[in-house]
Amino acid sequence: MSLLKLLGVLLDYPRDEIWEHGDELLAAADDPGLPPPRRRALVEFVQRLLDTDPLVAQDGWLSLFDRGRSMSMLLFEHIHGESRDRGQAMVDLIEAYRKHGFELAARELPDYLPLLLEYLSQRPQAEARDWLHHVSHIVGLLAARAAERGSPHALLFELLVEHAEGELELGALRRRASEEPRDDTAEAIDALWEEEAVRFGNQAPDENCSPKGPQHARPGDIREARS
């Protein structure tokens, strides 16, 4: 298992398969290509995850990545927000996947970081580094925000920036993150729902608009296209 695929699996919602393939994940984390301190830290991250009850790990993931937008792993959320440009960027990314023989299921969002990492893990290293270099400013800020919240996931984002050979000014990013208002509190989430409800005009939002847990694609869902 390559480093990018491993990081995609570890950043994704922790499904039961994580614990079923623990030995494989530990072996992949013990990557001789990493500097020894990073190698030890990654092995420790995986071991800590495997030692955690799945329900506890899943709840922790939801609390970090599924509440508020600042920790969203939908990359275009950070670049385009709700603008029309986001839709075109999605189309362009899907076309890039298809060009190299990959298809996504209808419900999958192509800019979901773990899914992108699955794709890049199967591309030439230089190409993967170039892709990551272009989003390293987002990934670096996610690293800083995760560290500010005391999450061990900060390590995974930092490794991605380093893999892209980017310069991670963690101190400056941590200061920026510390000054940002938190958007994962109950008050912030309530305010966001109230703000977005206005977009429906005189009609109340359909009950299907309520969140139902993680709806993102997972790395294992990306499949090679069949002729």
UniProtKB/TrEMBL annotation:
Biased composition (Basic and acidic residues): 218-227
Record has Manganese as a keyword: no
A Pfam family per the record: Nitrate_red_del
Keywords assigned by UniProt, alphabetized: Nitrate assimilation
Domain of life per record: Bacteria
Keyword check for Cell division: no
InterPro entries found in the cross-reference section: DMSO/NO3_reduct_chaperone, NO3_reductase_chaperone_NarJ, TorD-like_sf
Region annotation Disordered: where it falls in the sequence: 200-227
Protein name as annotated: Nitrate reductase molybdenum cofactor assembly chaperone
Organism of provenance: Cognatiluteimonas sedimenti
